[in-house]
Amino acid sequence: MDETVKPLRIPPQISVYADKHNILHLVQSMLSSLVIDQPEDPITYLISLLQRSTFDIPRVVLLGPPAVGKHTVAKKLSSELRAVHVTLQSLLSDQSELSAQTQNTEQELPAELLVRLIQQRLNQIDCFNRGWVLEGIPQSRLQALSLQQAGVIPEHVVMLEAPDDVLLERTRGKLVDPLTGDVYHQNFIWPDDDAVAERLETDQSRTERQRLADLQRYRREVTGLSSAYQHILKVINSDQPHTDVYQQVLSFIRTRSYCRTPRILLLGPPGSGKSHQARLLSEKYKMVDVCCGQLLRSVAADGSDLGQEIQPYLDDGRPVPDSLVLKVLDERLSRVDCSCRGWILHGFPRDLQQAKSLQQTQIQPNRVFLLELTDDVCVERISLRATDPVSGERFHLVTRPAPSSEVQNRLKTRPEDSAHTLTHTLSQYRTHTAALQSVYPDAVHIDADQDPRSVFETLESLLTAH
């Protein structure tokens, strides 16, 4: 074949290596930082990014109404993550005129000025190397959008919430440590250190009327703030013990979404819906649906040398040797569509030896799902399916009926779907199931004895989870 028209092959080990070292996430993060920050010297900038002690520096925004506990959570979070704690007060610490201006609660700091102050602070070396936690900033949708336009883009946004009556009660019992500025409460958060407890003072910074106005102002802005960060937002109920709130916040902050090309292996007995689920995933997420049986028949029909080796086994109804199957899979899964879009493999492996042989190749799935179904349900389902001899497509009387009466009338039952063959196939599957699970101990078990759409939703939630 002319090399210029020969299908491009990308060795599968490239994807395995990229997953192992989070290469795609690294490149995406570097490119995003480069485009957002637009440094004058891109090469030096990228080198400085790579020289960080960790690439996953925290970029967190912590929002919520007054008295919800933002300051306490943000301070503890910054300490644990070794990130820089940034508040409006700290931004204004060297801006005496602006600080006096913001004491007037009816006047909000202009978005342009706030953005400039935040950019100046986050561009300092400590924020660059250690990351940051913005507490109570931004305060409006306009500020949020202005920050996004300026390239201040958090990775996680946490919004603490509590009923208004709880918040107003907290403001009345608020206590402040005059030495550290730490916030406590006579009922909700009390210091462990008696020395600290003795020096606590009642918060006199706001009147009751001002506190109510602050809360009302936040309620007016909360919908706009939520929409500005909807894809990275986690809302947490703060009307519970402080330690529980903090652990939920920390758990969310520690979740990271890594870019991985999906390489999915679907296991399960005949009739469990592997082909149907693979088709649904392929249609929605554009992954390549690789059915081993169909692939072998396709290769046998193309007249290639490998196809001619496979054809006699198909004609005689004998199993195709594993060595030939692996050659076919290696060729198909290394094509550029599988390497770029990912793949879903089903129909192989079926036993321990096949699984071990697959492991010894570079064809390594990064997600394995085992669809579970009883033998009785398998037999019932398969008795309702048939194949179109013209198109090769398989239909099911309930889940995927034939598109027309013409197609329905020519449907045939495959020999392997006969009652005798099916009983033997199920027996073989049950014999090898435990061995297969030993090769894939991290396989996620899914109950397939439910509506196919429910099974798909379960698969989808597992695929899109952090």
Question: Main traits of this protein?
Answer:
about 475 residues, about 15% strand, alpha/beta, five-stranded parallel β-sheet, 23 helices, 15 strands, about 50% helix
Number of continuous helical runs: 23
Whole-number mean pLDDT: 84
For the sheet with most strands, the description reads:
5 strands, parallel
**Computed CA radius of gyration, to the nearest angstrom:** 30 Å
Structural class: alpha/beta
Fraction of residues in H or I helices: 40-55%
Distance between the termini: 43 Å
Q: Overall 3D geometry?
A: elongated
Summarize the structure.
The protein is built from 23 helices and 15 strands. Helix content is 51%, strand content 13%.
List strands and helices in order, with pairings.
Layout: H1 13-20, H2 23-37, H3 42-50, E1 59-63, H4 70-81, E2 84-86, H5 88-91, H6 96-102, H7 111-122, H8 125-130, E3 132-135, H9 141-149, E4 156-161, H10 164-172, E5 174-176, E6 183-185, H11 194-199, E7 201-202, H12 208-228, E8 233-237, H13 242-253, E9 263-267, H14 274-285, E10 288-291, H15 292-301, H16 305-316, H17 322-333, H18 336-341, E11 343-346, H19 352-359, E12 367-372, H20 375-382, E13 385-387, E14 394-396, H21 405-410, H22 419-439, E15 444-447, H23 452-464
Parallel strand pairs: 1-3, 1-4, 2-3, 4-8, 9-11, 9-12, 10-11, 12-15
Antiparallel strand pairs: 5-6, 5-7, 13-14
